Amino acid sequence: xxxxxxxxTTAVLLWTCLVQLTALGDTWGPMVLKGWPVxxxxxxxxxxxxxxxxxxxxxxxxxxxxxxxGYLLISCNGGLNQMRSAICDMVAIxxxxxxxxxxxxxxxxSFWADPSEFEDIFDVDHFITSLRDExxxxxxxPIRLKKKxxxxxxxxxxxxxxSDISYYHNQILxxxxxxxxxxxxxxxxxxxxxGQPIDLQKLRCRVNFSALRFTSQIEELGRRAVNLLRxxxxxxxxxxxxxxxxxxxxxxxxxxxxxxxxxxxxxRYAYPWWKxxxxxxxxxxxxxxxxxxxxxxALALRALDIDSNIQIYIAAGEIYGGERRMxxxxxxYPKLVRKETLLxxxxxxxxxxxxxxxxxxxxxVSLESDxxxxxxxxxxxxxxxxxxxxxxFKKTILLDRxxxxxxxxxxxxxxxxxxxxSSTVKEAHANRMGNPTKRLVIPDRPKEEDYFYANPEECLQxxxxxxxHII
Length: 471
What we know:
Blueprint: H1 2-22, H2 28-34, H3 44-51, E1 71-74, H4 80-97, E2 100-102, H5 118-121, H6 124-130, E3 137-138, H7 143-150, E4 155-157, H8 165-179, E5 181-184, H9 198-211, H10 216-230, E6 235-239, H11 244-250, H12 258-270, H13 281-286, H14 294-303, E7 311-314, H15 322-332, E8 336-337, H16 339-342, H17 345-348, H18 355-368, E9 371-374, H19 379-390, H20 401-412, H21 418-428
Parallel strand pairs: 1-2, 1-5, 2-3, 4-5, 6-7, 6-9, 7-8
Pfam families: O-FucT
Signal peptide: 1-25
GO molecular function, one term: glycosyltransferase activity
């Protein structure tokens, strides 16, 4: 008994001593507990910073509690940025219908045939947790419902394009409540650009600018590419949309030889969902509906007084016609780089044959560039434009293609001098630099109005003295 009492007393005394030593203060206590610094008599605080860098705790928003009306499956269509904006729309729709969204399925059957899953491109866990205060997102259906879907017991439909949220409340929600699971098989451009509740518009932005984060591998490679470019000074990203698929789809063959025209035509007829078959390339070009050629792009950049020594990062796939078509642009701007020349083969080997992952890398570099210049107003051009507005109205030169081809034809036919050509181009683009402006709204023609993701003004800092632009 005495032995146990001695042991207990000793333990209490030792514990008391330890507590007293710890309480002596910020200097002596940590030295006793962490080890006395022999060679480097720095303060305990400095030692903490060196050895244990503070990592901010990840703040997870609280779960939203609501009555679940059912489950929404979506299959995205198109390229990366077409799918990206569709995902933002579907998250907003799921939230306003009080339904559970299943992680979106990405398009694997389009021209690019990219087999990437959602989690191969986006940080799926961040996507789910960052939105949990708005909408419940699951990686897959509950087992009972999943088995029904696998047996083909599923209602599938495409929603009507450019519909407002009332359409989803009145037409789509009853179907979800009836079938418990609804599959929307085409999701691009299904939610109206304007006239939606402000909270819905802001949620679309939150998904786009915060929740849809690329995987750590893509983000890291994007940072490496930007750092390599920054070492050599400012850089311009040129989204040169002069690629085979775009030329075949649009029917634009300016500068192509007879064999190339025939090849592009065959490709257009090979895809049944490319509705336009017989296309007059000259008329489309004069209407400003064709992507600028590399030669036209070189003239436009020179006319805008873009420094010939600036680095130009080509954000695009393989340029149709190769080096022959790039010769004029390379002569005017010799510091042309691509991801394939900027980064090594080992960096890109995991991205080969995955066009959406390659496009994600171009997207990150485009956001960080000093100037962004798209030569066609496709999905990437629009979404990057809007994201750069969100980041502080970073300089984005929106080329007026219809005016440019008219001026270029006059200049190349010697009916316009270089000084006249250049001054007219600069004057025409003075207010086309991504500066604050109202989104164009055309209530009866939504396809012709400004795209929400190109100018998400509800989420941007308000601009002064900008009139509402409604037709």
